[in-house]
Specification:
Blueprint lengths: L1 E3 L2 E3 L3 H6 L4 H14 L1 H4 L3 H8 L12 E5 L11 E6 L3 H11 L7 E7 L4 H9 L5 E5 L7 H13 L4 E6 L9 H13 L3 H11 L3 E5 L4 E3 L8 H11 L10 E3 L4 E4 H8 L19 H16 L2 E4 L6 E5 L9
Parallel strand pairs: 4-5, 4-7, 5-6, 8-12
Antiparallel strand pairs: 1-2, 3-13, 7-11, 8-11, 9-10
Helix pairs in contact: 10-12, 11-12
Length: 327
């Protein structure tokens, strides 16, 4: 137990996982306790996070899946796909590369961010593939998020306007760490997936982001210790309070997105010093906040969020209320 900003910090995550209830039931229980007995909890940081997150509260029920028929609009036939990968674990990168090589029916360039010590190994692997690539060495700061923001201007300068964001995910605090990354990779870059999702964007101008099915979450249930930062970033972006009521985000921070969706986040002008130094944090960092704010970019830019179960004829957005991989 330690004091932080006058509030008592206790890691309730282990106890939280032992409560055998669905996430929405847990949140309802938390809301009841905090609302009825604020004098018992007001000194705790978890209470303050909950209170700050009331801005994301949504009174109506989320639809677990929303399917839309594609509108008959002229498609955008000039999409250039960039695959942006932050590499921290070389063995996981080899897995990603192997999957990408099975999806060469769509032309793309790979943009890599990585620590300096991995540069030569990655260069050697990519040099054998015949795929166009670029490598940017970065410091181990801001997880996969800050490196992504650093390389985006390079990607846009080369006129790429559809971006697939990947990273060598390992959630070492979870027993299911390999299951999570495997599920994400299979849905985003499994055999035939790149072509299918590329066609989704080509034929549907209203789709701005596509996340892996089963990993699109409502902010109101999964804000963690990040609500105040998310609110500040969203308001700086230009969103109104009412627009924050039903924010969604892609857990795992891997997705396809149009340039127009990512520009509002890039234009926040976040710098190295805005991100904490790496210390194996599980929550409450700028990287965790920006992971959620990517979804706000969809709202701000006026596009729709789809999941990878979509086709170019119909696109869906399945909202997951009880995510098995998130604390």
């Amino acid at each position: 137990m330690q004091s932080n900003n006058q509030y008592i910090e206790i890691d309730f995550s282990k106890l939280w996982k032992l409560v055998r209830l669905k996430r929405q039931t847990k949140e309802a229980l938390k809301t009841a306790l905090f609302s009825l007995l604020p004098f018992l909890f007001s000194r705790f940081a978890s209470y303050q996070h909950w209170k700050n997150a009331r801005v994301f509260a949504y009174k109506e029920k989320y639809n677990t899946i929303n399917i839309k028929t594609a509108r008959q609009q002229p498609g955008n036939k000039e999409l250039k796909l960039a695959v942006v990968i932050h590499v921290f674990y070389i063995d996981v990168f080899k897995e990603i590369l192997s999957l990408l090589l099975k999806n060469k029916t769509v032309s793309f360039k790979i943009f890599i961010t990585c620590p300096e010590n991995l540069h030569d190994s990655i260069d050697g692997l990519l040099n054998q593939t015949g795929i166009s690539y670029s490598i940017l060495s970065v410091k181990n700061r801001g997880r996969d998020v800050l490196p992504f923001l650093k390389i985006l201007p390079v990607v846009f300068d080369e006129n790429y306007n559809l971006i697939l964001k990947l990273h060598t995910k390992r959630s070492n605090h979870l027993n299911k760490k390999d299951l999570w990354s495997t599920d994400l990779f299979s849905k985003l870059i499994g055999e035939g997936e790149v072509k299918k999702i590329y066609e989704l964007f080509i034929e549907n101008n209203e789709v701005g982001m596509a996340g892996p099915e089963g990993h699109i979450l409502p902010m109101s249930l999964y804000y963690g210790g990040n609500p105040e930062r998310v609110r500040i970033l969203c308001e700086k972006m230009g969103l109104q309070k009412q627009q924050l009521k039903r924010l969604l985000f892609v857990a795992g921070s891997m997705f396809y997105a149009r340039k127009e969706v990512l520009l509002p986040v890039l234009n926040l002008g976040l710098k190295d010093e805005d991100f904490e130094e790496e210390n194996s944090q599980l929550d409450k960092t700028m990287a965790h906040a920006v992971e959620r704010v990517f979804g706000a970019g969809v709202v701000f830019s006026g596009f729709e969020l789809a999941d990878t179960n979509s086709s170019f004829l119909n696109f869906s957005c399945k909202i997951t209320l009880n995510h098995p991989f998130t604390i």
